[in-house]
Amino acid sequence: MNVAVVAPQTSRWRDADRAGALLVRALNRYAKAWLITSVYHEGEPAADEEVLERSLGGYVALKEDPSGVPTIRVLSQRSLSGSISLRSFPSILRNIDDVLGFDVVVVLSSFWNGPEEVARWAEVRRSLAALGEARGVTVVYIPLYLPPPPSARSLLGASKLMWCALHCPRVIRAADLVVAMSEEEAEELSQYRPRRIAVAPNWIDEELLARASRPPPGELEGAEAVVAYVGPLEEDKNLELLAKTAERLSSAGNIVVAAVGAGGEAQRLKRARPKNLLVLEDVEPEPVMAKSALGVDLSSYEPAGIRVLEFMGLGVPVAVSQYNHASRLVRDGVDGVRLAQLGDAPRVIESLVRRLDVLAEMGAKAKERAPQLSIGRLAELILGAQP
């Protein structure tokens, strides 16, 4: 069985952009899967754009890609605001399909043009199949849908509402299966009358988490406890609040706050940091996560929240912003804490760290859920969607 996973771009740190490679890795244990995405990795070209422009089919297949999985990069563009769109994608997808012959096409994320372009391609493909001129195809849509918070810029919120009104109904009608991450997401998407909708917050890859057994960075040696954030070091992740949390924890003992990732705010965070805040840019995150007493995410907007699930899979409880999609999966006070008010984060995190025994109990309860959140279950759900 051949599967395409269509995603906006790739990333090592941003969850919504990690999702495509994670899913392809899991699907390749059961079938043959490719990641089809823009030219961008972490917002920068991952392939020679001139070669891509000259290509006959509008795409290049890369043997070695930063995503770490079989990847096909297609013609794409990025606006001044940073949003990514695919160019002439229905015809490019047709060209790729003529070579590889897809049985299933999965498209990820909301608020970009990939889902509507796949819907347009699927409509033509099904019309040809009805005439006996093409094989049938199963389309799966994973929206990673989270409305912007009230604090979001009005233009951002308005553009996302417009996308929902103009494109979401067509995309969902074109899908044989819609996969929601939470019950709340499924309920909201049900207004568009999907053919079938399933809730599957299954993004924990046990094989990747096995890296946690490797030694953590030496900078963490001797710490009484580690509080870790893993992800993009960007403005929307509220890193100033993370620094305030570290400052507050400096009086609670030998507590290290580790910010693991990369991004435009890394240098500023290093300059402004308290002594107990470590910025770790070029390390494997899993060993740091496993050593942590608490994982945190203070994002003002995070539509996927995969790192939160990975912390839980490693037996580490989490303190997570209500604007992180994974907060809907955290059992408040059982395997983590949902932060209703981000301004309270330093105080709440300090109170948790002063009770390491309680954190250990919460971590054990978090780890019990890991098998239920395995990405293998998501792969099986997708492959089982074929009629």
Automatic annotation (TrEMBL):
Keyword Transferase part of the UniProt annotation: yes
A Pfam family assignment: Glyco_trans_1_4
Signal peptide: none
Domain of life assignment: Archaea
GO molecular function, one term: glycosyltransferase activity
InterPro entries found in the cross-reference section: Glycosyltransferase_grp1
SUPFAM superfamilies in the record: UDP-Glycosyltransferase/glycogen phosphorylase
Keywords (A to Z) from UniProt: Transferase
Name of the protein described by the UniProt record: Predicted glycosyl transferase
Organism: Thermoproteus tenax (strain ATCC 35583 / DSM 2078 / JCM 9277 / NBRC 100435 / Kra 1)
Record has Nucleotide-binding as a keyword: no
